[in-house]
Write a structure and sequence with these properties.
Blueprint lengths: L8 H14 L13 H4 L25 H14 L3 H10 L25 E5 L4 H6 L6 H12 L6 E5 L13 H18 L3 E5 L1 H8 L5 H4 L4 E4 L6 E7 L2 H6 L4 H16 L6
Parallel strand pairs: 1-2, 1-3, 3-5
Antiparallel strand pairs: 4-5
Helix pairs in contact: 3-4, 3-7
Length: 272
């Protein structure tokens, strides 16, 4: 015969409550609603005033796109040489690419400051981000070899339409290019090249403000104009060397573009 003493009712009650609490039950519902606030059985919910969320948090672009473009114009206008322009770009916080995780630094330019040709690509890739210079990866090395074969070694100044690496090396968006455009234009003004070589569809479209694809534009001469129309330069769109690595047969077309550019550069008296 079991002589053990049964647990006290309050112990059973606590045990049962603990069971239901472990099961996630934390209140008891009855057939009729009970106004526990009116009964004073529980305090009324306290109103929490939330502070307004700031428009800018750490790691986000500095304000709306229009403000960012205005800031870029101001910074660019204050740069009186390429070194100052590089510093202005590095300090600029208005381009979203700076905060998207792929870029570790700004990538501005390489090449002589008095070059007669300015090469404008799309955006830096992983190798460019690592070294801080444009066109230094496999595609850039191919472009260097083609420029050397065309007699353009040390005659080109290189930059891009954006100065921070896009995630996954994707094509920069029109909005990202627009934010960086004042810096690109200032670079053109400071270098004063005789002509532009626009490398890739994204570069050609944004610089010339046209919608055609690169295959339709390449090999043709266009006129690039500054925003205030104070400067106008001939511009040649051509295929991006990254495309040529994927499609080697297209190198013939890109070479034809370079030949046309060199002829106009070295023999301006000839019709083009």
């Amino acid at each position: 015969m079991d002589q053990s003493v049964p647990p006290a009712p309050e112990i059973l009650a606590h045990s049962l409550l603990a069971f239901w609490a472990d099961a996630g039950v934390d209140c008891l519902y009855q057939d009729e609603a009970v106004d526990r606030i009116a009964l004073g059985l529980s305090p009324p919910p306290r109103r929490v005033e939330l502070a307004p969320t700031p428009l800018r948090t750490s790691g986000s672009p500095a304000g709306p796109a229009a403000d960012a473009v205005a800031q870029a114009r101001h910074l660019a206008s204050q740069a009186h040489d390429l070194a100052a322009l590089a510093e202005a770009i590095a300090s600029f916080e208005g381009c979203p690419l700076r905060y998207e995780g792929a870029a570790t630094r700004s990538v501005f330019s390489r090449g002589p400051s008095d070059a007669p040709v300015m090469v404008i690509g799309e955006g830096p890739g992983g190798d460019e981000d690592a070294r801080g210079e444009p066109f230094v990866g496999r595609a850039g090395q191919l472009l260097d070899r083609m420029l050397a074969a065309a007699g353009l070694t040390d005659r080109v100044f290189m930059t891009n339409t954006v100065f921070w690496r896009p995630p996954g090396n994707r094509t920069p968006s029109a909005a990202e290019q627009a934010v960086c455009a004042p810096f690109v234009e200032r670079a053109i003004t400071l270098v004063r090249p005789k002509m532009l070589l626009l490398v890739g569809g994204a570069s050609a479209k944004t610089m010339l403000k046209r919608d055609e694809g690169i295959l339709a534009m390449r090999g043709r001469w266009f006129e690039w104009r500054a925003e205030d129309e104070s400067l106008e330069l001939p511009a040649m769109p051509t295929l991006h060397p990254a495309f040529l690595l994927r499609q080697p047969a297209a190198k013939k077309k890109a070479w034809s573009d370079l030949v046309s550019l060199v002829q106009r550069l070295d023999r301006p008296e000839c019709p083009h």
